[in-house]
Amino acid sequence: MSQPYGLLAEFSNHEDLLRAAETAYAAGFRKMDAFAPFPVEGLPEALGKKTRLPLLVLIGGIIGGVGAYYMEWYANAVSYVINIGGRPIHSWPAFIPITFELTVLAAGLTAFFFSLGLSGLPRPHHPLFNVPEFERASQDRFFLCIETRDPNFNRDQTRAFLQGLSPLSIAEVPE
User: Whole-prediction pTM value?
Assistant: First the structure.
């Protein structure tokens, strides 16, 4: 028999899912994911997931702002110098609106593309879609999946561990 994708435990409420995720993380499992019909506060931390998205958005915004300011400065002070009405060549107050707009644009585009990339989207098929019970993940059920690629994964021991968390059911996820 081929190696499955993982074991999927089904829970009836988000408190049980959060407790199960914390227990699994404390037991040493790292390659796992949780699925719920709504955001569960504290679940990413319980799973040990950290995101670099805020830092990437900050860097994208800074690059956008610095790039906009440099573009305006270069165009007005170096490339095409025109003295109109005695205004200074480097008139920084006039550069602020465009600098702000490109900062926001670059940060927004960075957030959009990196959130797609870091979450693995688009992904038209996932092995969990082969489990009939998983259809209720978007309605009223909560799931914890421990993947076989986890170093601590052992089919029998992991099933016994999940059974100790009192789930509604445990399903083997085929690859």
Answer: 0.76
